[in-house]
Amino acid sequence: MARFSELDRYLFGQATHYDIYQKLGAHPTDEFGIRGVCFDLWAPNAKRVWVIGSFNGWSETEHEMERLEPETMGIFELFIPGVEEGALYKYLIETKDGKRLYKADPYANYAELRPGNASAVADIGHFKWSDAKWMSKRAKTEDPYAQPMAIYEVHPGSWMCHPGREDEGFYTYRELAKSLISYVTEMGYTHIELMGISEYPFDGSWGYQVTGYYAPTARYGTPEDFAYFVNECHKHNIGVILDWVPAHFPRDAHGLAEFDGTCLYEYADPRKGEHPDWGTKIFDYGKNEVKNFLIGSALMWIEHYHIDGLRVDAVASMLYLDYGKNEGQWVRNKYGSNENLEAIEFFKHINTLILGRNPGAVMIAEESTAWPKVTGPVEEDGLNFSYKWNMGWMHDFLDYMKLDPYFRKNNHHKMTFAMSYNESEHYILVLSHDEVVHLKCSMLNKMPGLGIDKFRNLMVGYAFMMGHPGKKLLFMGQEFAQLQEWSEARELDWYLLENPDHKHVQNWVKKLLHLYQKNPAMYELDNSWDGFEWINANDADRSIFSFVRRSRDGKNNLLFVCNFTPMERPDYRVGVPLNKSYRLVLDSDAEEFGGDGKKKPQSYRPKKKECDGKPYSIVYPLSPYGVAVFHF
What we know:
Layout: H1 6-13, E1 25-31, E2 34-42, E3 46-53, E4 66-67, E5 75-81, E6 88-95, E7 100-103, E8 119-120, H2 132-140, E9 150-154, H3 156-159, H4 173-187, E10 191-194, E11 198-199, E12 212-216, H5 223-235, E13 239-244, H6 270-273, E14 274-275, E15 280-281, H7 288-304, E16 309-312, H8 315-319, H9 341-357, E17 362-365, E18 387-389, H10 391-402, H11 405-408, H12 413-416, E19 427-431, H13 443-446, H14 452-467, E20 471-475, H15 500-518, E21 532-536, E22 544-549, E23 558-563, E24 569-576, E25 582-587, E26 603-604, E27 616-622, E28 627-631
Parallel strand pairs: 9-10, 9-20, 10-13, 13-16, 16-17, 17-18, 18-19, 19-20
Antiparallel strand pairs: 1-2, 2-5, 3-6, 4-5, 6-7, 6-8, 11-12, 14-15, 21-22, 22-23, 23-28, 24-27, 25-26, 25-28
């Protein structure tokens, strides 16, 4: 009796086999009382297929797979007794034209550490989860948009390394569960986003050219080790988001490209199936089995590994048929336009499915264009993502921050423009790894000026970001003003924290993060004007921004004042919305942040004096690049 049943074949053909990872691939099992592994593979255009591996001396003739009925479905199956966990294997595929291909298992749950590229047998059902409290709380969250989300984006291999070891010095998933969680908790982040966890062959791709969509990379340990990391994050009230890459895949010979001798996973027409800029293949989103492959991967991470969300990479490249292509390199859709209708339908399907089955989980789009309703409901022709990275805000923010303060007055609008479209989507404000690589400079070295001015510029920028509506993401190292651009080949420059200037920035970010988590005004009403009010959005000549963040109950609000020039304003007057006491809760002049440490009043009572269109106002000594946050 075939393990891959008639019902399995039907569901797979409809793109609705949502636990496909439990059927295709290599799975330890018992058959007639004999322990072994059942191998199942989809390769409809293969002539013959063999399983070769460490258990049979990589024999190319010993273990031929059986083609199940109906033959056109292309499912091959074989039970091999005596195969144990950890055994390495590949599929030898004979194509219809007689070629022999040596392919890794697309559904493998584990893989050989590069430079090897074989798949490895794994039983991912061993782990005993103990995060029920977290999972229950997540599922019962009534309004996920009203929760804090401050994400620490991490490349696990270069966050921190073991010095002087003969191997590459990577921290394992279990070591990260101790050191990274401890650091993130102390700093005040709510989530960790891991770059490139799905298995990939080339370190320099950072995990964005994937060959193993069902396998956590072996660089940092086993699948069980990865589950342990997620479990520990949840026990410490830290959410876990993974970067997930359904946009494209590499051409590596052992991977998905021309898998059975034909364009199986990719579009056959190279004008649809290839990215000329990236040298990669594009998934065929019109093929049900391919859609099921991707949907099954996403569901496995979220449902089996308890992941709290997926950040979907390169969404724009999937939505537009002409993305990164010149005329003649792409094919119009049936309406004569450039939208990939099949990718649009895929997003609606997968987002509705995942969010419907997993309350509290999130799907995040890295989408860099003005595509409408990315986070809108499918009923209104939206894509139904939970959040969208606000790339427009990021570009405007960095353009402004790079300017010499003298020229900022002419670019004041760059810092206010995002509020004009803030209600159109649910946004995450991002300063990601992409902004500190490939000659883009570190965040610190983007800042104008010399010496301490660079640090003060960066600090006022971070304060503005944390106060602005939208969830937050900072890439690792930015929180202590990493000097070098990021490279996957080395750890962060932690030694910089011995320098007071870098330590002050870290203290500042930590304070901002704890202020964020403590004050619902900073996250409850992120995409509504009910939660935000400009006090003065037009003080361009002095390059000062003042605004209010409001809580849902209207009782615990915050007033932000941010000075983006080195000019001191000893008697800066700011209008206030209410005639009540304003308590200073964040002062950039505090000694712990590198300020002069002079004592200031902690409470400010408004005077009946018009300012910024308000009948009442307060006066505060605003220092160069000064930030003040008041609670009222």
